[in-house]
Every structure is written in structure tokens, then in C-alpha cells.
Amino acid sequence: MNKCIFLIILMTTFTYxxxxxxxxxxxxxxxxxxxxxxxxxxxxxxxxxxxxxxxxQLEKLSKVEKNKTAFEHxxxxxxxxxxxxxxxxxxxxxxxxxxxxxxxxxxxNGHGVVTWYKHGVYSQEYSGNLNDGAxxxxxxxxxxxxxxxxxxxxxxxxxxxxxxxxxxxKEEGSFVEGKLNGxxxxxxxxxxxxxxxxIAGNFNGRGELYIKNGDKYMGKFRNGLESGKGTxxxxxxxxxxxxxxNGLKHGSxxxxxxxxxxxxxxxxxxxxxxxxxxxxxxxxxxxxMWVNGWPQN
Length: 297
Fold this sequence. Notes:
2 domains
């Protein structure tokens, strides 16, 4: 190959790989410190002086701005000069990352492994697909407190997934931004605790709650508590069918005992209150008044 042509190719490659002007170098320094506003100012000055590296960096930064993703939500992997998404701005909290995987347009893209350290000590690791520096697609996040495996969307656990806690608790179902939303279930090791509807990580809608002592509840929930119409069945077979509010029997309802006796009436904060009727096993009825759970003469 002609030496002149070789030198031109070499110089062109070098120009795009590194800043060639004072302002380009200052821009790169600012960008690596996540001072993006300063980096943009410096790069603009460098572009006016013909710095092709600065021009390329400006295009990358513009792409992130178009995605409306704040720059403080990114952190550098210094080994590869590749940006990694931060769900929280933690640039100044002594955190560092190590990334193994492809880097496209200055960001982690494709299948990779991101390992986080705090004060130099391991804190968490993500293994899976990434897009523009963020988990996107299927991936596994390992935390000190447990792990999440499943779908991701723009850096948030969203879609079908399973969260396994270190103490053996497990949540699985449909997630939105890291919290169960839609159909899902909760387990205590191998014991089913709840299955049904969720909103923002709480029992909401219709579901079934299984209590460790053998009791169970089937019905409506609101903000994690039994609220609305439902059925509570004690471990001994007694059952209440009626209204609940904030986890307590509240409103009209009926209790059926295993000995054949029934009580039909109203409850207030888990206690019988108001007019009620006792139906004995032989079918006879006794009507009366209850206050705070006690019958009145």
C-alpha cells in the first residue's frame, strides 16, 4: 500500500477515536464527570475547529436527549468508556460499574453483564439484554437482598417476572416498573400466601389470601387489605360471608359455625354491632342488639 494513503487512513481513524482539539479534550473530561452541560459547550467550540470526535459525541448526546432520559441517570464504565443506565442518579455516591458486552454509540447494547460496586465492594449484578445502556428484554438482576428474573423495559422491571427474596419469599406475575401489577402470586418458600390481582405491589381487586394458621380469605382487596365483599374461612371450618373494610369485618354479614349455629347481622371494626339474629342448630331464632361484640339485655 502506498505510504501516503496509509498515513491518511491512519490519521482519519485517529481523528474519530480521540479529540483533536483543546476544547474536544475538555469536553471529554466533562462528559466523563457527567457534567453534560459543560461537555456540550466545549464540544460545540471544538466542532467549530474541525474536531470530528467532538461532532460524533454531540450526536450521541443529542440522541439521549431525544429519548428524554436525564444524563444523571447514566454512569460510565471507565474500562470501555461505555454508558450504563442508572435508575437513580447515584454518580456522587461512590459507585462504579464494570461492563462486559458490546458497546454501540457509546452505550451498552446487546447481551452483557453489568456489575455494580459501592466503595469498591460488590453490590449487584445484571446479566441480560441491554438497549442504550439500560436493561431491555429478558435479564436477571442479582441483589444482596434477592434477585429478579424476567422482562425489562427501558431499565425497569416490566412484564412477566419473578422476584425471589433472600428469606425465601417469592413474588411472580406481571410487573410494572419493579412492582406487581395485574395477575400475580406471593409465596413463603413453598407455601402459597396470595394469588389474584395486584396494583403497584399491593393486593388490589379480587384475590385469595392463605394465612399460616390455616385460615383463608377469598374476595375483594384494596391497598393490601380485605375490603369489600368476601368470605373468611377459619381453620376449624367456621366461615363469615359478608362485608369487610381495611382488613376487618365491617357491614352486613353472616357467620356459619360448624355446630350448625348461625349469626346474621352487622359488624363494626370486627365486632358485632346493631341488630342481629342468632339461628340455632334446631332452626329456632333469637333476635337482639349487640354493642361492641356483646349482646344487650
